[in-house]
């Protein structure tokens, strides 16, 4: 099953030379916590709310003149469309990140996967498994 089904919005993209305030506004308008940084069609990084908080606000930098290039996380950690949810979760855990860039087989950006969607999917799967186990346990066997 495709990972992109977990996040149905087109990803927010920003250029590396855009200001942090412009990137933050784009993320805010779309209600997302990260934007993919692209140079033409090539993914070169990711900028997140955490990047803005730590590298701009806490560092007392001016977001109206600081460029995305100066605070983005690069290279972006990415996965393919057919990556399993468990693999995506493991990558996020390994790299201590909350967003993965989703690329198609031609390395074209097709989505951004947020940790919350991965967790929702894993929880749904666990609930189904628990339901199946309860059903199995509760079935009357031979003789009743």
Strand residue content: 15-25%
How would you sum up the major sheet? 3 strands, mixed
CATH architecture: Roll
Strand numbers in spatial order across the main sheet: 1-2-3
SSE pattern:
EHEEHEHEEH
Based on CA atoms alone, the radius of gyration comes out at 19 Å
* Cα end-to-end separation: 39 Å
CATH homologous superfamily descriptor: CBS-domain
Put simply, the count of helices is 4
CATH topology: CBS-domain
CATH classification class? Alpha Beta
- Integer average pLDDT: 87
Structural class: alpha/beta
Would you identify the regions where 5 or more consecutive residues have pLDDT less than 50?
none
The helix content is: 25-40%
Looking at the structure, what is the overall shape?
Answer: elongated
How many individual domains? 1
The count of DSSP E runs of length 2 or more, i.e. the number of strands, is 6
């Amino acid at each position: 099953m495709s990972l992109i089904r977990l996040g149905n919005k087109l990803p927010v993209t920003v250029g590396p030379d855009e200001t942090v305030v412009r990137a933050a506004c784009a993320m805010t308008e779309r209600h997302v916590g990260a934007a993919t940084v692209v140079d033409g069609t090539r993914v070169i990084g990711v900028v997140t709310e955490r990047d803005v908080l730590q590298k701009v606000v806490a560092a007392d930098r001016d977001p109206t003149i600081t460029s995305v290039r100066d605070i983005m996380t690069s290279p972006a950690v990415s996965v393919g469309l057919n990556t399993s949810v468990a693999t995506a979760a493991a990558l996020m855990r390994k790299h201590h990140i909350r967003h993965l860039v989703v690329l198609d087989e031609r390395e074209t950006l097709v989505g951004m996967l947020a940790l919350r969607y991965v967790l929702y999917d894993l929880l749904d799967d666990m609930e189904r498994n628990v339901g199946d186990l309860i059903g199995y346990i509760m079935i009357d066997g031979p003789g009743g």
